Amino acid sequence: MGFYDSRYGLRNLDEKRVNDRGNGFDGLYGVRNFRQVLRGVFYRGGANNLYHREKRRDNRNPLPDDGLYNLCSEGFKNAIYLYATGFKKAPPVVNCESSVQGRNRLVYEQLSFASKTRAILERVHAAIVNPEQGPVYAHCWNGWHASGFAAAVSLRQFCGMDGDSAVAYWIRNTDGNDGRSYDGHKRRIREFIPYSDLQIDPATRSRICPSSTGEFE
Predict the structure, then answer these.
(1) Strand-strand pairing, 136-139 and 102-110
(2) pLDDT 10s digits, 151-187
(3) 112 — phi, psi (to 5°)?
(4) Which residues have CB under 8 Å from 85's CB, separation 6+?
(5) Domain segments of the chain: what residues?
(6) Of 143, 154, 75, 72, residue with least CA distance to 108
(7) Full-model pTM
(8) H, E, C per residue of 54-106
(9) What is the CATH number of domain 3-208?
(10) Of 106, 180, 116, 107, nearest in space to 146 by CA
């Protein structure tokens, strides 16, 4: 069992370590709906702006400063905001002292989920092949739609998940917010074709991917 397995205790793709209100794990305060996608490598969720206990603001914003600092402290080196709204006001880099990494540096990027899919997968792939890089956190506002898309295509790319299963995963993890206006997300997930140059070997796949039932065994 790896460090993040022990720390977060996430046993399957659907389980949350931080809930919709941003509570559940103080070390990750500032995020919402925090879920594991690839064991110890890739996590998804939202930004806790709407329910923040001290600095509440509009939901349509990037991560609050404490969310970025806490991710840095947890050993994350890359966080990705999947929308553009408000990003120019966010710090592009956060430096911290991490109990995991010692002195750590988190890079905060804006990569739109639909137009920068390959770039997102490249960031995840880099974290897979170089564990010293630390895990990636990709987020939208609530942790439902865009982060679900990034997670679903990552499961297709790196774990061989089929289109129907990936769409079903996306739907489950919208927490019931999967209306017709999101049909484009589902279509893109189903039609996604994995990149041949971003494949991983079977041993790595076995180490980081969930089982066919979505469990981390």
Answers:
(1) unpaired
(2) 999 999 999 999 999 999 999 999 999 999 999 999 9
(3) -65, 135
(4) 60, 61, 62
(5) 3-208
(6) 72
(7) 0.97
(8) CCCCCCCCCCCHHHHHHHHHCCCCEEEECCCCCHHHCCCEEEEEECCCEEEEE
(9) 3.90.190.10
(10) 116
